[in-house]
Specification:
It is a single chain. The protein is an alpha+beta fold. The chain has three domains: about 400 residues, Glycosyltransferase, CATH 1.50.10; about 100 residues, Immunoglobulin-like (Sandwich); about 130 residues, no CATH class. The protein has 15 helices and 22 strands. β4 and β5 form a beta hairpin. α3 runs antiparallel to α4 and α7 packs parallel to α9. The longest helix has 24 residues. It is globular, with a radius of gyration of 26 Å. The N and C termini lie far apart (about 65 Å).
Length: about 675
């Protein structure tokens, strides 16, 4: 086959599929939750990341390589190069989002060019580019495929080049040419007759496919497909975590659920979907769909987080989702979005957008602080001890901080969040032959055209998720009927749709979870309103999740809420400060007033004595058999906070899942 090049300013641009993604030049956020985070990302997070990359010497590694002085002076882990590439990708998307006439975008352009020049100077004549391997005094190229991350780093280089090519099309860009030489070398070395192995950390697979889509070069797609088919044939050997850590225990086509290292699994799955779509491989796509479904049903936290093992950053077995041991790495959330987005484009099912929304609000938005300069690496659902702030000069071990940290020894998450937020606009809407689909809700303008040429202009106005009204106003007559499709989240029971079109009385109808469609010859000023019920609600877990049996969580719209000790102490006058020592009054529904959600809590009554086990107490609240009170404390109303805002007020304990009865009753 011959690939046609795509210049749509979007991270993923398949040549076929159910839906066509829109680019950053077709959709613009105009305010609200995600626009605020995009602005913070540009104003604070990107400069912070560049500062740390310079301070830690990870960009300077390329200078040392160009000067021929490596390995002396090299700093950072074997994959430090990849963080520079992710930062360049974030810059490219931000430049594309801001526009070439924006003064800030001009400053970003200069920074992009300066760092690209330092990277390009380090490339070997044959295209090899890595600061950890291949020079005198270093290990040989491709000699540590299990742990060396050479192909992983090359993958992030290619994705940065894709972002550059799509936001600055039609130019002979330095980074794109650097990436092309690197990709050619990978194909030469690992193609048919070459090294028959894979990288221990998947990432090169989706990168090669997207680079093929940008360049039209079939060779890159063929190499990605070869890597996908080699996975699971045991080329990496065994390790203490087992071959499943690398997803090298069984072929991709044979797997029924994601397993092993969660980030690796997500990146591999994203790349495999890309291969399946471009090769029109229905069998492979069906296998990946099954893996997504089983992983969401059995191995995903309420927040959308994935990965319950700390030691190997990996998925646990089915239903092993302990809240206090939730690893839920931020990068695994990004990988999950990458996987889900590709399936959504291929198949169009709204369940993929539901998981993207959940993961965006409760993993991606949780990692960066309100200042944009500190981050969570892991995302626990139950914090048992308050943390202390990490000084800006500190470099935190991966997940040891109980508060956000400014940087990590393994700092994959900050630039991963930055590139996701910079390109987030591309995940809001799509088109097909019949119309336009809205998948995520935020104030935005959309200006695009259907494949037949009909021009569509829409404004989206909403305070979502604070408010559940999403108002779509048509700004131009397309000259023909078309279909507007809006996602109704799975939790939105009782949603309503109101259509106000010129010359017709308002039409209102129920909007069941899934999608709702309006086909009409829309004129300028026509309005479609989706009313989503975002009031707080109790959520129960599948009883097979042992760790939270007998507990409830509280959600409001797409946001998971949590209890922090700082609010518990304030609401009880300091009588109660331990979030693990209270239970939820499940008979009192959560209440909302003036934007604050509160729940009724009561103290847990623990067995007396030095031994923590006892016969079940028939009167766990201290009430006598005749109903007389015997010192039982009345309930108290305590506010909850959105999970993405926890730990913003200093050290605090926290929990998402609240027990509804005492330990004795559960026994």
């Amino acid at each position: 086959m011959s690939l046609s090049t795509s210049t749509t300013a979007t991270p993923v641009a398949p040549s076929r599929g159910r839906l066509r993604p829109l680019g950053l030049d077709e959709v613009a956020l105009t305010g609200g939750f995600w626009a605020d985070r995009q602005h913070l990302n540009a104003a604070a997070t990107l400069p912070h990341i560049e500062d740390r990359l310079e301070r830690e010497g990870w960009i300077a590694n390329f200078d040392l390589a160009a000067a021929g002085t490596l390995p002396a002076g090299r700093r950072g882990r074997e994959f430090a190069d990849s963080e520079v590439y992710k930062y360049l990708e974030a810059l490219a998307w931000e430049i594309g989002r801001s526009g070439s006439t924006d003064r800030a975008a001009g400053a970003l352009e200069a920074r992009f060019d300066a760092i690209t020049a330092r990277v390009a100077a380090a490339q070997e004549p044959d295209g090899y580019l890595n600061t950890m391997f291949g020079r005198p005094g270093q290990r040989a190229r491709w000699s540590a495929l299990g742990w060396g991350h050479e192909l992983y780093c090359t993958g992030h280089l290619l994705q940065a080049a894709v972002a550059r090519a799509r936001t600055r099309p039609g130019t002979d860009d330095v980074l794109v040419e650097v990436a092309r030489r690197a990709a050619d070398l990978v194909c030469d070395v690992f193609g048919p007759g070459g090294i028959e192995s894979v990288c221990g950390h998947a990432e090169i697979e989706p990168a090669l496919v997207e680079f093929a889509r940008v360049t039209g070069e079939e060779r890159y797609l063929a190499q990605a497909a070869l890597f996908v088919e080699r996975r699971g044939t045991g080329t990496l050997g065994d390790i203490e975590f087992g071959r499943s850590y690398f997803q090298d225990d069984m072929p991709v086509r044979a797997a029924t659920v994601l397993r092993g290292h969660a980030v690796r699994a997500g990146y591999l799955s994203a790349g495999a979907v890309d291969v399946a779509v471009e090769r029109n491989d229905a069998e492979l796509l069906a296998a990946l769909t099954t893996q997504w479904e089983n992983t969401v049903a059995r191995r995903t936290y309420l927040t959308g987080g994935q990965g319950s093992h700390h030691q190997d950053e990996a998925f646990g077995e089915d239903w092993v989702l302990p809240p206090d041991r939730s690893y839920s790495e931020t990068c695994a959330g990004v990988a999950s979005i990458m996987f889900s987005w590709r399936l959504l484009l291929a198949q169009g099912a709204p369940r993929y957008a539901d998981l993207i929304e959940r993961t965006l609000f409760n993993v991606v938005a949780t990692s960066p602080s309100n200042s944009g300069t500190s981050f969570f690496y892991a995302n626990t659902l139950h914090q048992r001890r308050p943390g202390t702030p990490a000084p800006d000069s500190d470099v935190s071990p991966r997940a040891s901080s109980t508060l956000r940290a400014p940087w990590f020894e393994v700092s994959c998450c900050p630039p991963n969040v930055a590139r996701t937020l910079a390109g987030l606009t591309a995940y809001l809407a799509t088109t097909d032959d019949d119309g336009l689909q809205l998948h995520q809700y935020a104030p935005a303008t959309i200006r695009t055209a259907l494949p037949g040429g009909a021009a569509i202009a829409l404004d989206v106005d909403t305070a979502y998720p604070r408010d559940g009204v999403v108002r779509v106003t048509v700004r131009a007559d397309a000259g023909t009927p078309w279909t507007l499709t809006m996602r109704v989240p799975a939790w939105a029971q009782g949603a309503r749709l109101i259509v106000r079109t010129a010359g017709d009385p308002p039409a209102e109808r129920a909007a069941e979870p899934g999608t709702v469609h309006v086909r009409h010859h829309f004129r300028e000023g026509d309005v479609v309103e989706l009313h989503l019920p975002v009031q707080p609600r109790f959520t129960a877990a599948d009883p097979r999740i042992d760790a939270v049996r007998g507990c409830l969580a509280v959600e409001r719209g797409p946001e998971v809420l949590c209890l922090e000790s700082i609010d518990l102490a304030a609401a009880t006058g300091g009588r109660h400060t331990d979030v693990a020592a209270v239970r939820l009054d499940a008979d009192a529904p959560p209440q909302e007033a003036d934007g604050a959600v509160t729940v009724r809590l009561r103290p847990l009554v623990a067995p007396a004595g030095p031994w923590p086990y006892a016969a079940p107490d028939p009167h766990p609240d201290g009430a006598a058999e005749d109903g007389a009170e015997d010192g039982a404390e009345d309930g108290f109303d305590v506010p909850l906070v959105p999970y993405h805002d926890w730990a913003e007020r200093g050290g605090s304990t926290m929990r998402v899942w609240l027990p509804t009865d005492t330990p004795a009753q559960r026994g």
